[in-house]
């Protein structure tokens, strides 16, 4: 493909994406495919000869698009999304078109420095503690973009672990692994599953602390567990609180968790704000983050509310040197003259991967295109629409809302046995018109309904509620429909 | 930004990338900036109000572009690159514009299945062992796309570790971490630094085995180390061989390493083919991979030779269940009806991150646009150009080539003390016209010269050699130039 062909196909692809976005309401949110649908449609090896790009785009339209779940659709209420916006996509296009690797300063000075700048912008916009902001006086902290919240959490655990072991080890020549069996990490049972996965991958003992009826970590149980472990000769070294849990969008009490954690020797305090901390772009929401100033590290996914395309998982640490010590190794071929200058960051020492895309471009594009006020208006709208949906649920006696609705997530269920709500969800999912997912809260089966899409309007909320109530009437009337189909529903 | 504005700005951005690529030879490969150059040019927080996109693109041109190292420039001979091609960029554009998260089957059926298909395509094109190919009869293996080779290597280590611990543990209720201090991993001292970093992050004991004068792992030393560790009560559990080392593009003897590793209980054999295994797209190069059939897992970065934009790090495992067991956890909100079907892969259980981009699109676009024959021609050209450069070096008595040139990398030095070669490199780097990086081979300072760029021609090789020889003449003549400038050189 030569440069003129690229212009042609690239512009056609821009139109393809624009048309897709403009017409998204006309397609079902879920596809009508079964596992294994694609392989019979695709040859089983690379074509020997070059194929014209038109053939490929024809296959995209005919084979790929019918097999997509449309995450950026007004009736997608399922997971916290992977984010999309036009300026975010443009930022990704620039990053891919230049394809420069941001791993050490010399290989990409502008990409390196822009990442640091937008991480400072982001931290300031959310009102995060000053020590996370690299250009704040006296700060030795800073931010970095990782691939995902899972990665941020895993890295935080690894960094905290290296830090405690360094302290425990002193001048001893024991291998670092010898200290591991004594270490204990803590989070709540409602924390994102990636914390449990991080502990599993790193062979780290973890306690999943009970939550209260609102999905918040029970601080009394946490304290008791920590003191109990210390009495048993173990070493508590890491606690993660969540701002906006996956199951119910609950805000843990970071003030109480953080304050206590600072009384425990070696304890690292990490905050997973992947979803909920985005809302701090609204100053009135920052009351839910009181106590953030106790954090040693924190992560926020801008894709989850702030319109930056995935991957846009920002992570900050209070002391960058602790992170670099845990994650660095320094072969000759990666050395350069400027590597010891504070302003010449080598981001390879801030995460798992060596090479990294220029992820900062999409942040820069999105933040400037919307401006602070545009981002605030978007988040405010999501919160208002969720409240609107909550009111619709509360006004119907057959239903209950199971979480405190402060953000974009409403968890609801029928006031009946779990199987009724499960059936409700299955019928709606099988219709492919709406996508919601289940969760368990207070040991009950609930439906997650999350407002995320940039162009969601009140009418989408009302329409979706109409479908839910009609199916509920159908189920509760027990009119014989048990085959999981949504007969007669739009 | 509305959809019509996106069309306009998107198309302008396509032209921007096309123009950049078309004119790349007219700019210096290295930028004329010092650490800290960008922050004075950029406001220190998000603008309050929205900004027009034209302003942003003006800043891209005036502030970002002058601060880039141009990785896809005919005079970039430094690192194995992050890859770029027009169809690769188009694949990235599609993935970003759709922004669908490939984490479980239901959230992205087409993205999930396409990933599995292109991983099979890729494995077949390289002639990898059949058991890595998911649609091969009897296979229980398969592939997955990770962010980077570093991540592939780290994950392989974690999976192998979980597997050995599961076997050692049996029915015991000891914590997994208790087994860690006895485990030992092995690789060569010339393996990619990410292996050492992976061991550090995972608190795993590692032995860096000596290499011979050609940069290959010394199999005799490896065997001795393993047997010695067993005699000392330790448990060897992981060895990584490299196909195409970073320092010298050496191919380890995977046959000998693999064959021996299969005689050691619990030993997992991983092959890092990040760079060198790409060349197996040429059947005549596969002799360097003899013994791959002993591997339990393997990784190859298509960005390093095969024109797929970063991140394009493919990883295969012989037994997918072993990987899933090590990397899974299963909360209610991620469950779906089809999850136990073989064809409904949940890629979140194949790596660290939950959500992942639709990385398969760019593979599909590149493989089809070039066809097998186009990819083969590209790789063949890189190898021929490197041989051309090697000959130029060998024909000049003042220089020596320090590695065996089978791939695109030539490591060379002046036949003098290290400081002469270091000075040569510094002067050239400071000119900003050419970018090469240092390495240490056989305890000598050498310069890595790697041919990677799609449009590199013989004239670029000849021109770059002319610069190198002129600077060498200058240095060896000791005409008084010691200030690191390349006076009078183009």
Structure description:
Two copies of one chain form a homodimer. With 490 residues, chain A is an alpha/beta fold. The first copy, chain A, has a domain at 100-358: Aspartate Aminotransferase, domain 2 (3-Layer(aba) Sandwich), CATH 3.40.640. Chain A has twelve helices and eleven strands. Chain A has helices at 3-22, 53-64, 86-98, 109-126, 149-169, 193-201, 219-231, 254-261, 320-327, 360-394, 418-431, 458-476; strands at residues 142-146, 183-188, 205-209, 235-242, 268-272, 297-301, 313-317, 399-401, 409-414, 437-441, 444-450. In chain A, the strands form two sheets. In chain A, strands 1-7-6-5-4-2-3 form a seven-stranded mixed beta sheet, sandwiched between helices. Chain A has a four-stranded antiparallel beta sheet with strand order 8-9-11-10. In chain A, α5 crosses α6 (193-201) and α5 (149-169) packs across α9 (320-327). The model of chain A is unreliable at 479-485 (pLDDT under 50). Chains A and B meet through α1, α2, α3, α4 and α5 of A and α1, α2, α3, α4 and α5 of B.
